[in-house]
Amino acid sequence: MKEMTRTQAIEHGMTTTYRRQLWSKFQIAVGKYELIQDGDRIAVCISGGKDSMCMAKLMQMYQKYHLKNFECVYLMMDPGYNEVNRKKIEENAAALGLPLTIFETNIFAVAEHQSHGSCYLCARMRRGHLYNKAKELGCNKIALGHHLNDAIETTVMSMFYSSKLETIIPKSHSENFAGMELIRPMYCIKEEDIIAWSNANGLSFIQCACRFTENSTIDERGVGTSKRREVKELLKRLKETNPEIEDNIFRALHAVRIESFPGYKADGQLHSFLEDYDRKGHSFQMNHGENTGNNS
Q1: How would residue 158 be classed by pLDDT, with cut points 50, 70 and 90?
Q2: Residue 2 carries which DSSP code?
Q3: What's 258's DSSP letter?
Q4: Which pLDDT tens digit goes with each residue over 219-240?
Q5: Which of 6, 233, 269, 276 places its Cα 20 to 30 Å from the Cα of 227?
């Protein structure tokens, strides 16, 4: 038997060793949340980290093995990476067999001159450039590498630090680019499984390529000193005594009981449980009375 290339070995591992953790979970998300349709042209956004690279490979394999007729553009924006990071991204893409479409920007240089809010500005500029390039390339969807842990961490962070209960969802319409949709095909995949896959294949990805943080303390998961890191550490500790905590939080996102909350926000409007409190009470009394009458 002919020996497999490194790219072929990585693909084989995704459908065998990591079939349950990655390949199956990816297919579940795509099907459950209706993320890909025939005729789609999807900009698969690659930042160079483990998450986006893993997603890109799964997207490529899904296109290869499934009957849906769609196209992918493996889009990498260079916001001003240093030479080492740029080379690392290109080497990893070659190992994974991903044909990169690279475009240059000066985002890091622009953000560097801001005395305040440079991270916020950088994020907004990156998003804008990606949307514009995807539209220019004729794409109707943008695929991002957010995973299950991103969803549950965002939920906890929003409660702890923003006084609200919200998270990221598997897909959403762009508010600024008509006809453009964001999809997150790794929504059901756990970060620990992405890390295990990376390590098993001897892959090392860039952690944080930002000029402002590349010298800061970063752990093996690529997490810098931030509120998200605090939440990661909290969930890690809680998981020691409750191994199901991640799955429980994730399942809870799909089973929200709005009627049990004193208030909620929908379409930009705040609502209170008092709005239909009396009506529900009246309905309960009517039903209870009817049941009592039937039993007497």
Answers
A1: very high
A2: P
A3: G
A4: 434 434 488 899 999 999 999 9
A5: 269
